[in-house]
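Morning!

As promised:
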Amino acid sequence: MSELIRKNASELVEMLAKGEVSSVEITQAHIDQISKVGDAVHSFLHLTTENALAVAKEVDRRRASGESLPALAGVPIAVKDNLTTTDAPTTAGSKILEGWIAPYDATVVTRLRQEMMPILGKTNLDEFAMGSSTEFSAYGPSKNPWDLTRIPGGSGGGSSSVVSSFQSPLAIGSDTGGSIRFPGAVTGTVGIKPTYGAVSRYGLIALASSLDQIGPVARSVLDAALLQDVIGGYDPRDSTSLKDSLGSMVEAAKSGSLKGKKVGVIKQLSGAGFQQGVQNRFAEALKLITDAGAEIVEVDCPSFEYAIDAYYLILPAEASSNLAKFDSVRFGMRVTPEGNPTIERVMAATREAGFGPEVKRRIILGTYALSAGSFDKFYGAALKVRTLIQRDFDAAFANADVLVSPTAPTTAFKFGEKVADPLAMYLNDIATIPANLAGIPGISVPIGLADEDQLPVGIQFLAPAHKDAALYEVGAALEGILEGIWGKRMMDFAPKLEGN
Amino acid sequence: MAKANLMDYDKALELYEVVIGLEVHIELNTKTKMFCGCKNDFGDEPNTNVCPICIGLPGSLPVVNRKAVESSISIGLALGCSIAPTGGFSRKNYFYPDLAKNYQTSQFRDPIAFDGQLDVEVPSGNKFTVLIERAHMEEDAGKLTHIGGATGRIQGAEYSLVDYNRAGVPLVEIVTKPVFGAGAEAPELAAAYVRSIREIVKALGVSDARMERGNVRCDANVSIRPHGQDKLGTRTETKNVNSLRSIERAVRYEIQRQAAILSAGGTITQETRHWHEDKGSTSSGRPKSDADDYRYFPEPDLVPVEPSTELIEKLRALLPENPADRRKRLAAEWGFAEMEFRDVVNAGLMDFIEEAVAAGAKPQAARKWYSGEIARIANSEDKDVSEMNITPAQVAEIATLVESGKINDRIAREVLSAVLAGEGSPTEIVSSRNLEVVSDDGALIAAIDEALAKQPDVLEKIREGKVQAAGAVIGAVMQAMKGQADAARVRELVLERANQ
């Protein structure tokens, strides 16, 4: 295994700047790793390695001729396949979009291209980002590099596995209820859901527009910060995009400190009922946080009890409408039934064949939740809960700078364990969903391995809206303390993947 | 539907009270569409003014057109409405191939303007106040063309073509409250109301306001109930009424049709009906009930429009004079006969005459030129007066030249042709073609003497009271002067001579 692929993005940036390595060498090293482990892990749905090498070559040429380059120029990245790209298909993990090539790049992709980051390919996800394991991808699941019989988290299991198997130092994810943070926790990587509106959603195939947020996937907090500084910022194409700058995440990560911070432990998410190994690591992390000079306080968020219920009404409601455009008329799959079918029958047959079971489940749920007679009882009630959760957060942040919880109740589970039980699957997101409902930022940082299964455990920090920098500050501090104790990085605990 | 099933109109009114409600869609003439930067021009080659947003490609997001918001506010203000401090958008969900996203982005709960009223005068001189419930913004759908089949409608068609140039064109829908008490004049009131709306949006300059092009579309709701009954009757909504005349006819038809059904003991079906201009009748469309379930919910991709008080007041200050008030004022100022004024209004000449008068023409002279010679030439060239190559100032110039006796009517027509041909201003043409009339009495008297020498008995005839005999001499003089003489002055001189 080339040493280059084990480097963090921040280290590659330095090496590139010093001329110790070329972008082509870095990119090629990752392409080699993709060909070694790609089939086993199944992170990518489409590869764009040739284009990546072309970008790398151009970066090297410019550097050689002394031209100034953007910060992350030449550092490879992978992009979740629900973001549109003009040079590769965008399927969102669904059969209904098989082979569809978008005529435009998502804003985030445009920013990666402007940054001159070689894009290696598009990563796997549960169909339309609905799921916690990638088992609902129409193209088969991705594997957890820590144990290939286990899920890499979802929906962004492609991005988490690509980074944790060293196929790319960085990846882009999208988080609607935990789809960046949960995969981060179960693969020992860092995942951030920024404040709603901090990163443009233009070109993100919408799951639930009011909850979706694009964010970085990385192997260190600083790397994630480097990436958020590239992809974040106002975009006039997204009406919900924030106009104000949130400041430099890189500076926050570099200044990483816990000293004097008030850290709120959420009573409802303090770990009771969670896997014992998760509880143990979380308790240790709280102790380290205290030792680093932070004050732990307990905060009460009583409405969190209803968060999953509200989430599974709001999300399907929006999704049922967002997915209506997949009707075969303008793009994507078309199934024409026998005889001389009407357009209604063509639409129905296409959607019947093109959508998988979880997508259909949520469309039906959402259609029902919005229907006359059900609206107030379901969707309307869910919006009220959403407001109550926001108030819980407001009250909690009146007493704490950041909040903490375990990112997920368990470590990575085995394939097939929960796929037949939607409710069990939905419970994975119990700790991550409230942030999406409130629009606030959250980060998952690895804090070691669970005693019983030696699989990664993550801690989640939450901050008030617009205070993404606070997450990078405390996340980087805790990461630094843990790496000091371990004498190595989290990913150095991972078993070596057998290449082809 | 046989025409036999109609009740005599007077009989219908004797038995029933008529209630109407009108929904008028105004297509705004903004440069770009409601939610994207595409050209707002659906007459172009099909599917050329489209982009990922207006054809609803995955990942695309809408952005509200500011100008469309301003136009909507102006319409609201002109109709005496209150303007909402915050106007949100909703999604109206239904599947139809002309609807790119399978939902229409519209204002549902929070229309931008509400609670207005419009005073409308019907041809009899009776006046009614129509209460406006709301005016809200929405986007138009694409245009379907059904190929094959006899009716040109979707039923029976072999296939359909869809043009998305119109998808996303900004619309304002103006909805009245139920209109009571118009009695037999309900059809005239409906037409007069739409005419007033048309004039207002035209005066505001926010729409081209051409009904034949669909810039102004009206759906007419009609219900009847026995006199004295409190409960409203079941209503029908007639669509496809594309002219003021068809609105009037369609409302009258529905009154007669519904009266025939009710008096025979039948019930009215709540449905949309389709107006057939050729047959002068309506036919059943699709059933429509209050239970139509569009699953409205707040559009999560847009933030509510929040017009500032400054903007609203700025737009209020820019409101033009109410067209009805302006008509009254101009009729009084110009002193035209009632018929003359009506012809001017109907021919759309009011603006031109107003401008010509402002440039110095006498009202009658301006009217004469516009409804006479200019209208005649425009008509012969199959053009609109607005397309003629002459400005109101130039018309005023011609009128002034005639008024001052510098040219006569015949020469003025020649000058007009030359202006239309682009030869320059009227004064330039008179001078370059040397058209100024001979106003030197000496020259005229010499020509009169010459003519009298050839017709010596003329003076005697005049003295005997046969004044018309002067015509022969005048004609000869005009011929001699090649038309460049003031015939009235020649006549005066001939009569003077006879009386000497």
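Chain B touches chain A through 30 residues (CB under 8 Å).

Hope this helps with the figure draft.
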